[in-house]
Automatic annotation (TrEMBL):
Organism whose genome encodes this protein: Companilactobacillus halodurans
Keywords: RNA-binding
Pfam families: CRS1_YhbY (PF01985)
Residue intervals of the CRM domain: 1-98
SMART domains linked: CRS1_YhbY
Protein name: YhbY family RNA-binding protein
Length: 99
């Protein structure tokens, strides 16, 4: 799934002031990281992920791993070591950015 235009700009602007809620470190992409990601994205819809300096993970590797888990996860933007992901929440009470 690809988000373009105004919705992409809106999501980027909302994520600009967010702090990263998930960090990828030395362990890289593990099952625990993916479980944490799924929990966080279900609660928040929009999350920022940070790649730490000691990680060997490239941003494209993380994008592919997360999209293999769930096709509805959308990569919004990567700037340096910060990445923004979006997925529409299944529960209506958790929907903040998808109306």
């Amino acid at each position: 799934m690809i988000i373009k235009g105004k919705k992409n700009r809106y999501l980027r602007s909302q994520a600009a002031t967010m702090k990263p809620v998930l960090q990828v470190g030395r362990e890289g992409i593990s099952d625990n990281l993916i479980k944490q990601f799924e929990i966080l994205i279900e609660k928040n819809e929009l999350i920022k992920v940070s790649l730490l300096q000691n990680t060997m993970v490239e941003p494209q590797d993380l994008i592919e791993a997360l999209q293999n888990v769930d096709d509805s996860i959308v990569h919004i933007q990567t700037i340096g070591s910060k990445m923004i992901f979006y997925r529409k929440a299944s529960k209506i009470k958790n929907r903040k950015y998808s109306v």
